[in-house]
Design brief:
The complex is a heterodimer of chains A (381) and B (380). With 381 residues, chain A is of the alpha+beta class. In chain A, 52% of the residues lie in helices and 15% in strands. In chain A, strand 9 and strand 10 form a beta hairpin. The longest helix of chain A has 37 residues, at 229-265. Chain B is an alpha+beta fold. Chain B has helices at residues 7-34, 39-47, 66-79, 81-101, 104-115, 231-267, 279-307, 313-338, 349-359, 366-378; strands at 121-124, 140-144, 147-158, 165-171, 181-187, 193-195, 209-220, 224-225, 269-270, 273-274. At the A-B interface, helix 6, helix 7, helix 8 and helix 10 of A face helix 6, helix 7, helix 8 and helix 10 of B.
Chain lengths: 381, 380
């Protein structure tokens, strides 16, 4: 056990914290208000190598590892949650192509994703397959040198902008259902995307549906082996969940910081709010739970980085962090009172932004299933 | 950041676990029922070096770190919360302040027997009217030449009926309020010390909780721990470490709730299937396990900081607060999973629930922990 950040990681934390504070945070309210995609923030992240943190330099990545990635993402999300999710998706798509892609696919896609020239998406969810990700009905039928895809995906981050989307589709229905993954490129005939969704929070991120109508995807764009798609998707989500845990923590840290500042300034009954135990309790609980969440997220990242199994750790981190972060944001609104409900102050945005972290990349309910199954099967650890 | 246990930490985990499962667990229900103080187990723990885990070997301890201490506490508490608190008080509240603030002579005379388990220690801070407000001590110590004369009453003192040594706090200068408190090392055989009768408690029934009454107790000035007026600081620093022990105790109790519930849920059938198949039960198990993991991370972090002499006041308060409330929630869920059987003494679930409750109270209530954490957050 060692609870100190090493030199390089501490440097990354400092650098990203100051970037997010100076450049992202001041614009976050405007990005939210106008549902504006934070192009300039993504460019900055690309310049600093923060979009390909899990991939070696020979493919354009910065290979800083899962722990540094978790630390950086928390800081970015603290400044702007929408920018945070965009960073998370870029890293996840990049890492998945690196891990499962052929050499040719790596060469073709990765550099653009990391330089910011291209945008990626990860498309599993369908109108009738949310938590039940294996229940997808999009099909891919081999035909000559291509697969013909038919079906639709929904609620896909970067759906309307992605230059390349990792798409899961059924390649065999009987006797045993098999799912494969494909790299579908923008401009492919039969591939279209819907209008960006209007969301409660994360309004700067792009969320849209994808439709495939007799869409021919060249065989060379199949990611991994045929039938390997579900495993690829689940593996990517294990890692993705660490990212979402840290995104949640980042958002909540911003909310708690605002609440502390406000509690020190605001006076009622002749004294600062910070002097009241009712307010102190809320701040103490938020800080305690966020510290615990941070340690759980870093533990999962550490397991991933050192090559251990981390499915359960990632699920524990994700459910704990997203729910702790939600409570912290909720309390922050409460500390602000009526002002907390107003757009003029940032805490209602934090509350809206954080809500999604207990939903996407596996709802809290799915995380609990993963944890409970692990307990029943392998016992406590 | 490294999240693996060291070789030494793994070793003590295995050792403490096997001892706890083999020797402690089979006796836990009986001890709870009869309130018998486990002298036999204390002797065995002394042989294993558990009475002074983080005390250097030269002072009779095992010379390990505070994460090792937390690990040992968790394993013992998993089996029996009463036995664990005896351990915690001796390690954190008796050995640690003498190690940190004692003179070489005091260490030789008092720490060595405590850490090696020849003697048992206790900690006299709480008074009938000084609970959370520990600064408002009424016990007095009046200097009389080369001695101090102590008068007053200490309340709810763990280990009091069995202890040989007590680290005790008294006012040497009432004017200065908490800055007038001084710490002493008492030999419990000293004249004028009376120990009250053992309290009957909701849980941790086998630990011995009693009052200590001091009537003109004359103790040599050489038994003063630290300087005059330093007592409050010594008490607070000591509790920083003690809270790590209680957090670990709470984690052990929570784990007992989880492990017993998990085993029960796999066996118990209703509606034609093991209840572990039902999401309602799975949710409870998943939440217990998740919160235990979180509590353990906070506890190890605090212990890690203590080992490096880094300030760990906020961190140990966070660990204690979160772990104790986790243990309480786990205790409630454990009973619920067991249904009617959870309410019956034949099963351990209700004992875990009763044992868990104290962890939210002693060595600083949850309310005091939140106060400590908030004042750290609000400090500029």
């Amino acid at each position: 056990m060692q609870f100190e950040l090493s030199g390089e990681r501490a440097q990354i934390q400092d650098m990203v914290r100051s970037l997010a504070r100076k450049e992202f945070a001041p614009k976050a309210a405007e990005i939210d208000e106008h549902s504006r995609y934070p192009d300039e923030n993504l460019s900055r992240l690309a310049e600093l190598g923060l979009l390909g943190m899990l991939v070696p330099a020979s493919y354009g990545g910065s290979e800083t590892g899962a722990v540094a990635y978790a630390i950086a993402l928390e800081e970015v999300a603290r400044g702007c949650a929408s920018t945070g999710v965009e960073m998370a998706v870029a890293n996840m798509v990049g890492e998945t192509i690196y891990r499962f892609g052929s050499e040719e696919q790596r060469r073709r896609f990765l550099a653009d994703l990391f330089s910011g020239a291209g945008t990626g998406a990860f498309a599993i969810t369908e109108p009738s397959a949310g938590s039940d990700a294996f229940g997808i009905s999009t099909v891919a039928v081999p035909d000559g040198d291509a697969y013909v895809l038919n079906g639709s995906k929904t609620l896909i981050t970067n759906g309307s902008r992605a230059d390349v989307a990792i798409v899961t589709a059924v390649t065999q229905k009987e006797p045993e259902k098999k799912i494969s993954a494909f790299l579908v490129e923008r401009g492919t005939r039969g591939y279209s995307s819907g209008r960006p969704e209007r969301k409660m929070g994360l309004r700067g991120s792009d969320t849209a549906s994808l439709t495939f109508e007799d869409c021919r995807v060249p065989k060379r764009n199949r990611l991994g082996e045929e039938g390997e798609g579900f495993r690829i998707a689940m593996g990517a989500l294990d890692g993705g969940r660490i990212g979402i845990a840290t995104q949640a923590i980042g958002i909540a840290r911003a909310a708690v910081e605002s609440a502390i500042t406000y509690a020190r300034e605001r006076k009622q009954f002749g004294q600062h709010l910070s002097g009241f135990q009712a307010i102190q309790w809320m701040l103490a609980d938020s800080a305690t739970e966020l510290d615990a969440a941070g340690l759980l997220a870093l533990r999962a990242a550490y397991r991933k980085e050192t090559g251990g199994s981390f499915t359960r750790e990632a699920a524990v981190a994700k459910v704990f962090a997203s729910e702790a972060a939600y409570r912290a944001c909720h309390r922050a609104v409460q500390v602000y009172g009526g002002y907390g409900y107003m757009r003029e102050y940032p805490v209602e945005r934090h509350l809206r932004d954080v809500k999604v972290t207990s939903i996407y990349e596996g709802t809290s309910e799915i995380q609990r299933i993963i944890i409970a199954r692990g307990l029943v099967r392998e016992g406590c650890r | 950041m490294v999240f693996d246990l060291t070789e030494e930490q793994r070793m003590i985990q295995e050792m403490a676990k096997s001892f706890a499962q083999r020797e402690v667990l089979p006796k836990a229900a009986e001890m709870d029922e009869t309130g018998r103080f486990p002298e036999d187990l204390v002797r065995q723990m002394a042989e294993l070096g558990l009475m002074g885990v983080a005390v250097p070997e030269e002072y009779g301890g095992a010379g390990m770190d505070n994460i090792c201490y937390a690990i040992a506490m968790e394993e013992i508490a998993r089996a029996c919360a009463s036995t664990a608190v005896i351990l915690s008080v001796n390690n954190s509240l008796a050995c640690d302040p003498i190690l940190s603030f004692g003179s070489e002579e005091q260490k030789r005379k008092y720490l060595v027997p405590l850490a090696s388990g020849k003697h048992l220690g206790c900690f006299g801070l709480t008074e009938p009217e000084a609970g959370s407000d520990a600064g408002s001590q009424k016990t007095t110590a009046v200097r009389d030449g080369s001695h101090y004369v102590l008068n007053g009453t200490k309340n709810f003192i763990t280990n009091a009926t069995q202890a040989d040594t007590c680290v005790l706090f008294a006012m040497t200068d009432r004017e200065k309020k908490h800055k007038g408190i001084t710490a002493f090392i008492l030999d419990m055989k000293m004249q004028g010390i009376t120990v009250g009768k053992k309290e009957i408690k909701l849980g941790i029934c086998a630990s011995a909780t009693a009052s200590i009454i001091l009537e003109d107790v004359k103790i040599p000035a050489a038994n003063r721990l630290g300087n005059e007026g330093e007592g409050f600081k010594i008490a607070m620093r000591t509790l920083d470490g003690g809270r790590i022990g209680i957090a670990a105790q709470a984690i052990g109790i929570a784990r007992a709730s989880l492990e017993d519930s998990l085993a029960y849920a796999k066996e118990r059938k209703q509606f034609g299937q093991p209840i572990a198949n039902f999401q309602a039960i799975q949710w409870m198990l998943a939440d217990m396990a998740t919160e235990i993991d979180a509590a353990r991370m906070l506890t190890y972090r605090a212990a890690w900081r203590k080992d490096r002499n880094l300030r760990c006041t906020k961190e140990s308060s966070m660990a204690k607060l979160y772990a104790s409330e986790t243990a309480m929630r786990a205790g409630v869920k454990g009973i619920q999973i067991h249904g009617g059987y959870g309410y019956i003494r034949e099963y351990p679930a209700e004992r875990h629930f009763r044992d868990a409750k104290i962890t939210e109270i002693y060595e600083g209530t949850s309310e005091i922990q939140r106060l400590v954490i908030a004042s750290d957050l609000l400090r500029d």
